[in-house]
């Protein structure tokens, strides 16, 4: 009997091209680690079948997935509409739920790509157009919009976030 817990994370769609690539829609926002996903599980019940991932490409809000042994448009079409799952304990490596994720950044170390360590995120505030991180820099506090143009990368395991702040940003927005 299999005691693994699985979570639906990707809805598989139509084939893409003739090589067996599959268009897919993630059910959660993906992390930068999504391209490193090695196996997905497809099937109902407690024992879904493993499918080994050859590649995953992020195309806007969709994914293009190539699975081992799925080498034709016809074999890819058999998976259309199915849900792909991963083990529950691997969920936060590849996906996050935007509605729950923002407050998870509290306690993360904040870095700027050019300046290095800024400090620690001590507060997350929802603004009308975006979320905002409050970073304790020791003697000052910095407010940074959590906008995709300002975020270089997020490393969940290290609890670090690296920003791409424009020159002079800290001088203007630190108090």
Summarize the structure.
The protein is mostly beta strands and 175 residues long. It has helices at 73-77, 91-94, 98-101, 169-173; strands spanning 6-16, 21-26, 29-30, 39-42, 49-59, 62-67, 83-87, 95-96, 109-112, 116-126, 131-136, 141-145, 151-155, 160-163. The protein contains four helices and 14 strands.
Sheet with most strands? 6 strands, antiparallel, barrel
CATH C-level class of the largest domain: Mainly Beta
Looking at the structure, what is the overall shape? elongated
The unreliable regions are none
Please give the CATH architecture of the largest domain: Beta Barrel
* Overall pLDDT score: 86
**β-sheet strand percentage:** over 45%
N-C termini distance: 58 Å
Q: What string, H for helix and E for strand, traces the elements in order?
A: EEEEEEHEHEHEEEEEEH
- The CATH superfamily of the largest domain appears as RimM
The domain count comes to: 2
Number of strands: 14
Radius of gyration in whole Å, from Cα?
20 Å
Main sheet: strand order: 1-2-6-5-4-7
Determine the fraction of residues in helical runs and give it as a percent range. 10-25%
Number of helical segments with 4 or more residues:
4
Helix/strand/pairing category: mainly beta
CATH structural fold name of the largest domain? Elongation Factor Tu (Ef-tu), domain 3
